[in-house]
Amino acid sequence: MMTVLNCIATQHDAWLTTLAALICLVGSAITLNLVRKAARCHGFVRYGWHFLVAIASGSAAWCTHFVAMLAYEPSAPVVLLPDLTILSLAIAVVGTGIGFVVMTGGFPRFAPVIGGAMVGASIATMHYIGMLAYRVDGLIEWNMDYFYASIVFAVLFGSLSGQFLMRRRYPTSYRLAVLAFTAAVVSLHFTGMAALTVTPMNYLQEAELADKFTLATSVGGVGLIVLGTALASYLIDSHVQSSNLRQLQHIARHDSLTGLPNRTQFVERLSREKVSADNGDHRIALIGIDLDRFKEVNDLYGHAAGDRLLCEISARMTEHLESGELIGRFGGDEFAALKTFQDEDDLRSFVSRLNIALSDLVDLGNAVVRPGASLGIAIYPTDAEDVEKLLSNADMAMYRAKQNIENKICYYESSMDEAARKRAALARDIWTAIDENQFFLNFQVQRSIKDGGISGYEVLLRWRHPVQGLVPPTLFIPIAEESGVITQLGEWVLRAACKEAASWPVSRRIAVNISPLQLSHTGLVDTVQNILNETGLPAKLLELEVTEGAIIRDKARALHILRELKALGVSIAIDDFGTGYSSLATLRSFPFDKIKLDRSFVTDLDQNVQSKAFVRAILALGHSLDIPVLAEGVETQTQMDILQEEGCNQVQGFLLGRPAPAIHLGLDKKGEAQAA
After folding, report:
1. Is the pLDDT of residue 240 over 70?
2. CB 260 within 8 A of CB 314
3. Helix 303-319 with 294-301: angle, nearest 10 deg
4. Please, are residues 307 and 322 in contact by the beta-carbon 8 Å criterion?
5. Which of 333, 439, 537, 636 could bridge to 294 as Cys pair (CB 3.0-4.6 Å)?
6. Which residues have CB under 8 Å from 39's CB, separation 6+?
7. Has residue 631 got a pLDDT over 90?
8. What are the residue boundaries of the MHYT domain, all occurrences included (predicted)?
9. CATH number of 427-675: 3.40.50.1000, 3.20.20.450, 3.30.70.1290, 3.90.180.10?
């Protein structure tokens, strides 16, 4: 050991030795960083990184060797043979490159140790090939003990470097690997040089000494350039990866269409605000937002128009956000807003700003629409103890707002929990209600306004729950649609209604509503045909009612099915006419047999000038197209008189008769016309 230290201290130039050590340390750090990068890649990319590893490791080891050889002072003239010098560089590049490929291969288990040993052996081979190129004007003697020891050191420290680098169990593993790789190169060189004894025949001149320093500086500079190039490649790739990672993180936390925070980021912010509220004196308002009629806009004007609507509304809501406010998009037409506040007036101001942004007209290019939205508001800690409950309660309030025609802003109330539980129970019970005969049919008369004669009956579904009694259709129909049981339920209604009507002694037309989900079902035409055949009801006595929303959901498909139904001889009526964006377009696209004017236009017919004007326009449209118009919801004689005066064809409502089972209306007797 003392011999090695004496060799370094007395037989090597201090400046060049320091330069060699610096090259080795920097080269080791760069090389092992590249090795870690290569280990994480696959395919051709991995081989590309291994190429850089070979260049960096070979250059680092060879430049260290070359500069250290120039630092050696044998006090005699020295000549380096070019062919062997170049061969030593090639061995360093290829040998260490192969060793690092083996090190990162992962198989067998000891691949890091084996690969590291190969790297050490390659450095040793490079060193002694380089020594063969080292021709000195003097007598040379070798100490074989130090010769073998130098090779053992190179292989040993090379193996340790691989072990530290690939067994990343501790934070210091990389630094230990760099030190081990540096030790492999340095210990090999200086132990090998300690094995060499030179007796000069001629002594080195001052000019030759200056040339040696110039050459060492040049080689060191070139080596650092090579290493710098490898380092630059690594840093560029790391920057690109960091940029890609930031982009992926942004994508993972933001809505791709609007750029708003998505549910993940929104909930994270909500959780942070909850912690802040727990430690402070402010509260949090969570506002669930669901756009009204977004699907109608999307289906009628196309997905591009729907996307434009979402982007425009998002921009409006975020335009004037203040501190403590956040807007996020959860998907589809569902948004959420967050507001931290102390004063109730601040919250009301925020809700007002949102409502204005959601209600103003939006120009879609090919149409101008007024979207509107339902807002459900829950407040922490008043309405919930944790984030999940707050989200759930805001959602319940939003659902209540959607059901409310007049007030589209709803604050959470504790009674909603009970309503939600009842709704969940009904969703479970509805699946067994058909088999247990809990459903039954009512019929409401439809009359000609001209002579008062019966033109038909609308079939209305009712549910008598064994525990809750009569369940309103406005409650169980949406549940049936959400759960998917509406298809089976609709088929049951159609079969039961046709069977009942076929048994009447007097032939009467029945009107049965078809849900949007039924209309989208490919087997609807066959189902109707089979039911007509089974029950014996003539097709001309069956009228199927469809809403505008059911048609525009998939317009081409729906119209194709309606044409097939009409070909069976069944009549088709458009229900709730006038309540959607697409009323006229829908009416133009299919030869309907009847227009059913929505009850909302009849309710205030005798008080609202606009409603009267609208009814007059629809009746005129029906007359020009030769399509009879039936007005729903007629409850007063004044409404009846106005409709008669305006030329309405048929009417239906409580004024004419309430819905009731067929037996109560006398439909099973020939005198039903008088009884009804």
Report:
1. no
2. yes
3. 140
4. no
5. 333
6. 104, 166
7. yes
8. 12-199
9. 3.20.20.450
Query: With contact defined as beta carbons under 8 Å apart, do 336 and 330 qualify?
Result: yes
Both structure tokens of 159 = 């193996």
468: left (phi over 0), alpha (psi -120 to 50) or beta: alpha
| Residue environment code for 603-628, b if the CB has 16+ CB neighbours within 10 A, otherwise e | bebeeeeebbebbeebbebbeeeebb
Domain boundaries, the chain: 2-245, 263-413, 427-675
Please state, in angstroms and as integers, the Cα–Cα distance from residue 126 to each residue in 63, 86, 120, 277, following that order: 11, 10, 10, 67
Q: Which pairing describes strands 409-411 and 439-448: parallel, antiparallel, or unpaired?
A: unpaired
Helix (H, G, I), strand (E, B) or coil at 132: helix
Place of tokens 């170049």: 86
CATH topology of domain 263-413: Alpha-Beta Plaits (3.30.70)
One-letter identity of residue 525: V
Q: What percent of the chain has pLDDT over 90?
A: 27
What is the C-alpha to C-alpha distance for residues 486 and 171, in angstroms, rounded to an integer?
60
CB contact at 8 A, 446 and 575? no
**Residue 316: helix, strand or coil by DSSP?**
helix
Give how far the C-alpha of residue 196 lies from the chain's centroid of Cα atoms, to the nearest Å.
68
pLDDT in tens, 149-170: 888 988 999 888 888 887 766 6
**Across 450-461, average pLDDT:** 93
Q: Is the peptide bond before 381 cis (omega within 30 degrees of 0)?
A: yes
Distance CA 24, CA 563 (A): 83
Query: Contact at 8 Å (CB) between 562 and 590?
Result: yes
Amino acid at 220: G
pLDDT at residue number 206: 43
CA 196 vs CA 14, 190, 619: distances in Å: 19, 10, 114
* pTM > 0.70: no
Report the SS3 class of residue 141.
strand
Block residue for tokens 């292989």: 155
Q: In 3D, which of 17, 8, 14 has the Cα closest to residue 66? A: 17
